[in-house]
Amino acid sequence: MINELRAVNIGICGLGTVGGGTFSLLQNHEELLAARAGTSVKVKHVGARRDNPECPTGDTPVSRDIFDVARDPDVHVLVEMIGGTTVARELVEAALRAGKHVVTANKALIAEAGNELFALAAQHGVALRYEAAVAGGIPIIKALREGLAGNEIHWLAGIINGTGNFILTEMRDKGRAFDEVLKEAQALGYAEADPTFDVEGIDAAHKLVILASLAFGIPMSVDAVFAEGITKLTPEDLGYAEELGYRVKHLGVAKQSSEGIELRVHPTLIPESRLLANVNGVKNAVLVEGDAVGPTLYYGAGAGAQPTASAVVADIVDLARELAAGQLCPVPSLGVAPEALKSPSFVSMSDVVTPWYLRLEAEDRPGVMSEVTSLLGEQGISIEALIQKAPGTGQTRVPVIVITNAARQGDLETAVAAIEALPTITGTIARIRVESLDG
Ligand SMILES: NC(=O)c1ccc[n+]([C@@H]2O[C@H](COP(=O)([O-])OP(=O)(O)OC[C@H]3O[C@@H](n4cnc5c(N)ncnc54)[C@H](O)[C@@H]3O)[C@@H](O)[C@H]2O)c1
Ligand SMILES: N[C@@H](CCO)C(=O)O
Ligand code: NA
């Protein structure tokens, strides 16, 4: 038991997109939140290096040193909204050590330092909540930790970076250039402070690590995830994929089998009939396959001030209810008691089996296709679909697009190297994994 609180005081550190959105949502819904929490929830202290013109703080005290908030004895819940893993980690540690509960949206911090931070929180009898860290406003952490608690989870797959999905959607639907759409995503507040995290798959990797930890009951394993971003995708690959009945999405995939655990984020061809193939713009979606429930799908805004604030405030309301009742919720941070976390073994990428999309540029003469198919055949790889485009006027080379059947990545790489060495093939072969996503 902890002392029952009649009013729960919040300290917000960082008043940018999400911090500002959270401040506003707490102000705008003050009565509603008090009714839901059974206690008043008030922002007592803000830590911000500078004012945010879009988020006037009125008479709420503002400190320029965010650590003043961690030192404020009146603050019960510190909301970390500065991002990064250096100062943010020091701040969260200081707050936990001072006996404050912490709410964060910081997936980099949870993925990289969650193991230590959850232990520190437990040591000090306080909570560390992170719903906003994955898939923005979608309550996926609660779904995995509580709603699916009766299931063994075999796999999950998700579109978990809003910026990347926004870019791919705009490129496909409007033919817009990558850089221009990225700038718009930054202006809309979707992108990370360093947007290479979004477009190189690092942000999705952080989120996948968190999802896998909850789904499989393993510690955060950031070094085990393979990450590839969307920067090498070309409009022609998006177009050819569509001709073959697929959409290209940036996907995070976590799978558990007798071989071990696969953790990977990369561009993926998905059959166009799948729900995930039709998740567009800044929306995210996570498909989770439980052994009892079967496939379940969670969809909503993956980034942006108000959607992300929705998840931050949900954590705050949960905590306020618990503090009002004088009892923290006994659900562990990762859904299982720390001593019950399993030691995972991971499948190496060369052993991961998926179908592949390949695009090669070949000389337009008889026999070339049979050379390509026989080099794939030598590695036991068969072909599901193949299209050879007509050569442009005066051209002797043609694009050839192949979809393979399921192939071990190591075997595929051997075949691709042999095909690239053929004198009739020009340059490197573009390749993208395919996921059928049938449960
Ligand atoms: N933007 C989104 O849609 C979104 C969604 C989910 C999670 N997140 C996460 O939320 C966190 C915040 O992201 P954001 O988009 O609001 O970023 P932001 O850049 O808009 O806001 C961060 C704020 O923190 C301040 N800040 C940074 N370092 C500081 C320091 N040392 N001392 C004082 N102030 C400092 C900055 O001045 C800025 O105002 C990040 O962890 C991010 O990954 C963002
Ligand atoms: N930059 C992230 C924010 C949400 O975590 C994204 O675009 O998905
Ligand atoms: Na979420």
Keywords:
Alpha-Beta Plaits; 26% strand; binds L-homoserine; alpha/beta; Rossmann fold; Dihydrodipicolinate Reductase, domain 2; ten-stranded mixed sheet; six-stranded parallel sheet; binds sodium ion; binds nicotinamide-adenine-dinucleotide; 439 residues
Helices and strands in order, then pairings?
Layout: E1 7-13, H1 17-28, H2 30-37, E2 40-47, E3 62-63, H3 67-71, E4 77-80, H4 87-97, E5 101-104, H5 107-123, E6 128-129, H6 140-147, E7 153-159, H7 162-174, H8 178-187, H9 196-199, H10 202-216, E8 226-227, H11 235-243, E9 246-257, E10 260-271, E11 283-290, E12 294-301, H12 305-325, E13 353-354, E14 356-363, H13 368-378, E15 383-388, E16 397-404, E17 407-408, H14 409-420, E18 425-434
Parallel strand pairs: 1-2, 1-4, 2-3, 4-5, 5-6, 8-10, 10-18
Antiparallel strand pairs: 7-9, 7-11, 9-10, 11-12, 13-17, 14-16, 14-18, 15-16
Helix pairs in contact: 1-12, 2-12, 4-5, 5-10, 7-8, 13-14
The structure holds nicotinamide-adenine-dinucleotide, L-homoserine (HSE) and sodium ion (NA).
Residues 131-132, 134-136, 138-141, 311 line the site of sodium ion.
Question: Your description of this structure?
Answer:
This protein has three domains: 7-136 and 305-340, Rossmann fold; 141-301, Dihydrodipicolinate Reductase, domain 2; 351-434, Alpha-Beta Plaits (2-Layer Sandwich). The protein is 36% helix and 26% strand. The protein has helices spanning 17-28, 30-37, 67-71, 87-97, 107-123, 140-147, 162-174, 178-187, 196-199, 202-216, 235-243, 305-325, 368-378, 409-420; strands at 7-13, 40-47, 62-63, 77-80, 101-104, 128-129, 153-159, 226-227, 246-257, 260-271, 283-290, 294-301, 353-354, 356-363, 383-388, 397-404, 407-408, 425-434. Strands 7, 8, 9, 10, 11, 12, 14, 15, 16 and 18 form a ten-stranded mixed sheet that branches. Strands 3-2-1-4-5-6 form a six-stranded parallel sheet, sandwiched between helices. A two-stranded antiparallel ribbon has the order 13-17. Bound molecules: nicotinamide-adenine-dinucleotide (NAD), L-homoserine (HSE) and sodium ion (NA). The site of sodium ion has 10 residues, from helix 6.
